[in-house]
Amino acid sequence: MDITTASALVTGGAGGLGEATVRQLVSAGTAVVIADLNDEKGKALEAELGERVRYVATDVLDEASVNAAIAVAEELAPLKIVVNAHGGSAGAARVVGRDGEPASFEQFQWYVNLFLNGTFNVLRLGAAAMAKNTADEDGARGVVINTASIAAFEGQIGQTAYSAAKGGVVGLTLPAARDLTKQGVRVMAIAPGTFFTPAFKMERGEADQKWGSAVPFPNRMGSPSEYAALVQHIAENNYLNGEVIRIDGALRFQPK
Asked: For 189-231, how does the pLDDT look when each residue is reduced to its tens digit (9 = 90+)?
């Protein structure tokens, strides 16, 4: 795929993995829509990166909101890349706590709603838009890249809700790719390990010492730019489809 003639929509694009993806794609010549709900950071990033970048306040669970962001992307260039990198946290909980109380059902629903339902909502609407593109010599019209987690495979104690939601993203990948073969839209997922983002609210060195020491090699936390570089490669490589790629430095989560 020639991403220099394309636009991309990046959910969660105002920070963390999403912001790194926005910067990577813009540097590669792609027009980008930052789809996020953080107005301050989104508008600041738009102003910094220039006229081929737009911030659009976007609720991934709202069809009209997502379609509005897609429409802005299509004004910039044909939409060929959709990246679901939105995040959030509602805390962790054991299925039954030490006090004997069951986990919050509302918390479980929150995770599934944001990470699985929100991802599917953006996937389906983005794919429908990309299906209208002119195909390249492979018949390709676009790619959706979702964000899973290695917690989908090795969820830790207290991560049932998060792991279930990210496991759903993993399970979505292959059947969605198969569904979209006639439309020429690929579906991929990235499963990051422990990556350093502003969500840790501490200095990189402190975070590396606390969490990076468990990573076999490189013996550190991942950098958002490494996730973003993988996004670009997936976008440009038409033969990557229907697969989940771990990016984790050979880390395998232990129970806790």
From this structure: 999 999 998 888 889 989 998 899 999 999 999 999 999 999 9
How far, rounded to the nearest angstrom, does the alpha carbon of residue 79 sit from its chain's CA centroid? Answer: 17
Q: Is 255 exposed, middle or buried (0-12, 13-18, 19+ CB in 10 A)?
A: exposed
Q: What is the largest CA-CA distance in the chain?
A: 61
The Cβ of residue 59 has, within 10 Å, a number of other Cβ atoms equal to 18
Q: Is the pTM of this model over 0.90?
A: yes
First-to-last CA distance in the chain? 41
* Helix 63-76 vs helix 118-130: crossing angle, to nearest 10: 40
DSSP reduced 3-state for 59: coil
The radius of gyration of the chain from alpha carbons, rounded to an integer in Å, stands at: 18
Question: Where does residue 154 rank: exposed (0-12), middle (13-18), buried (19+ CB within 10 A)?
Answer: middle
Show Cβ contacts of residue 11 under 8 Å, excluding neighbours closer than 6 positions. 18, 35, 36, 58, 60, 83, 84, 85, 86, 118, 122
CA distances from 219 to 55, 214, 256 (A): 35, 7, 19
162 is catalytic: yes
Residues 233, 143: Cα–Cα separation, whole Å? 11
3-state SS, residue 142: strand
Q: How far is CA 26 from CA 34, 85, 184, 186, in A?
A: 11, 16, 24, 21
Among candidate residues 55, 111, 162, 227, the one labeled active-site is 162
Residue 174, classified by CB atoms within 10 Å of its CB into exposed (0-12), middle (13-18) or buried (19+), is: middle
